[in-house]
Specification:
With 324 residues, the chain is α/β, with parallel strands linked by helices. Helix content is 39%, strand content 15%. It has a domain of 184 residues: 3-Layer(aba) Sandwich (Rossmann fold), CATH 3.40.50.720. Helix 5 runs parallel beside helix 6 and helix 11 runs antiparallel to helix 12. It binds NADP nicotinamide-adenine-dinucleotide phosphate.
Length: 324
């Protein structure tokens, strides 16, 4: 973890190391606006905050759909980062803000929204960033971090590693359809983190003292290469799952054919190239330091999501017979 500032007398580590809290660290109120609430981190974050009896305002482009999902215990507001006219109602009387950068949105609206939050007096922000952002100044996550750091908002940067949920999301079709992990990662390792743990850290940072002006590097408990990932899948699902390790070209072609947007294919190809080079295996103790429990392992994740990874029942086999 990193302290973003070092104001003399400001006990930034109080909440984590058992020291006394300063007034500056006190959480003063309890309405939290959650952007990306329908996403992989925002979803469990909303559930966690509601369990803490916090007033949660869910910001979505589809508030009706969000209400169907989360029920009547939250507030709902239509919100689109690309439509500033939706920002005022979203930010009214908000104390804490969970913000993410949707890949389809440019950096500028996110920065302007941060400015709007500062102007109306939002106290604190939890920003979902990426592991290693501090070393990648030209990438959007770091540019947004830098912008937030220049405001008066008390910030917690949640620098997350690769989500386990990518396996149940973008990579699920090959797992359920072909019993394959179709990822061009070579022998490189990844410090997979469960998005539910990222959400739990966000909930803690936004509702408990001790997390202002800090950056957390959020990883799972272990760095695994995809051979090891395939072993975990095979054991937990009780069927052989193989690691295909295609070339980057074969991967890109396959994803295009599946209809995955070009920008996402390009992003993943670069991301897995970085993994191949061995730059993605760093693990940290930040999840445990904040939550007081270890992060979930990949084995726990696959086990919890076993239903999602069940084979396509009607998939034709090489003999033309379908699975019953
Ligand atoms: N995938 C990874 O391994 C990984 C790792 C570290 C960090 N991250 C970061 O995580 C972020 C994505 O988070 P996630 O995976 O939880 O999200 P997600 O599941 O991809 O969902 C995207 C969310 O963005 C919201 N959204 C999309 N367009 C929007 C707009 N114009 N205005 C307002 N909200 C909009 C959607 O809300 P509505 O549809 O309800 O409006 C949705 O909840 C990215 O910034 C990424 O860099 C990802």
């Amino acid at each position: 973890m990193t302290n973003l500032t070092s104001t003399p007398g400001d006990d930034r580590s109080a909440g984590l190391e058992g020291g006394a809290e300063t007034d500056g660290d006190r959480i003063t109120s309890d309405r939290v606006l959650v952007t990306g609430a329908t996403g992989r981190v925002g979803g469990p974050l909303v559930t966690d905050l509601l369990e803490r009896s916090v007033t949660v305002r869910i910001a979505s482009r589809d508030p009706t759909g969000a209400r169907e999902r989360f029920g009547e215990t939250a507030e709902y507001v239509e919100f689109d980062l690309e439509r500033p006219e939706t920002w005022g109602a979203a930010l009214a009387d908000v104390d804490g803000l969970f913000l993410l950068f949707p890949p389809s949105v440019g950096v500028r609206p996110v920065r302007e929204f941060v400015d709007a939050a500062e102007r109306v007096g939002v106290d604190r922000i939890g920003y979902l960033s990426i592991l290693g952002a501090e070393k990648l100044p030209i990438l959007p996550p770091r540019r947004i971090e830098n912008h937030i750091a220049r405001t008066d908002l008390a910030a917690t940067f949640l620098r997350a590693s690769y989500f386990m949920q990518n396996l149940s999301g973008i990579h699920r079709p090959e797992i359920v359809g072909r019993d394959e992990l179709f990822v061009p990662a070579g022998d490189g390792s990844l410090s997979f983190v469960d998005a539910r743990d990222v959400a739990a850290v966000a909930a803690t940072a936004l509702t408990e003292p001790g997390h202002r002006n800090r950056a957390y590097d959020l990883t799972g408990p272990a760095a695994l290469d995809f051979h090891e990932v395939a072993e975990v899948f095979s054991e937990v699902l009780a069927r052989p799952i193989t690691y295909a390790d295609p070339s980057r070209l074969a991967f890109a072609r396959h994803m295009y054919r599946r209809g995955v947007p070009h920008s996402l294919v390009a992003f993943m190809t670069v991301e897995y190239s970085v993994v191949r080079l061995g730059f993605s295996g760093r693990t940290t103790g930040d999840v445990e330091a904040v939550l007081g429990r270890p992060p979930r392992s990949l084995r726990e994740f696959v086990s919890d999501e076993a239903e999602t990874f069940q084979r396509d029942r009607e998939r034709p086999t090489s003999t033309g017979v379908t699975h019953s």
